[in-house]
Amino acid sequence: MAKTRTTFFCQNCGAQSPKWLGKCPSCGEWNTFVEEVVQREEKGTRWSSMGTAGRERKPQPVSEISFDTDQRINVHNAELNRVLGGGLVPGSVVLIGGEPGIGKSTLMLQVALNCKGIKVLYISGEESEQQIRMRAERIGIRNTDCFILTETSTQSIFQHLEELKPGMVIIDSIQTLHTDSIDSSSGSISQIKETAAEMQRFSKITNTPVFLIGHITKDGSLAGPKILEHMVDTVLNFEGDRNYGYRILRAAKNRFGSTSELGIYEMQDTGLREVSNPSEILLSQRDEDVSGIAIAATIEGLRPMLIETQALVSSAAYGTPQRSSTGFDTKRLNMLLAVLEKRSGFRLASKDVFLNIAGGIRVDDPAIDLAVVAAVLSSNQDLPVDSKSCFAAEVGLSGEIRAINRIDQRITEAEKLGFERIFISKYNLKGIDTKRFSIKIIPLRRISDLYAQLFS
Ligand code: TYD
Ligand code: MG
Question: Which listed residue, of 65, 101, 159, 162, carries a Cα 20 to 30 Å from 324's Cα?
Answer without folding.
Answer: 101
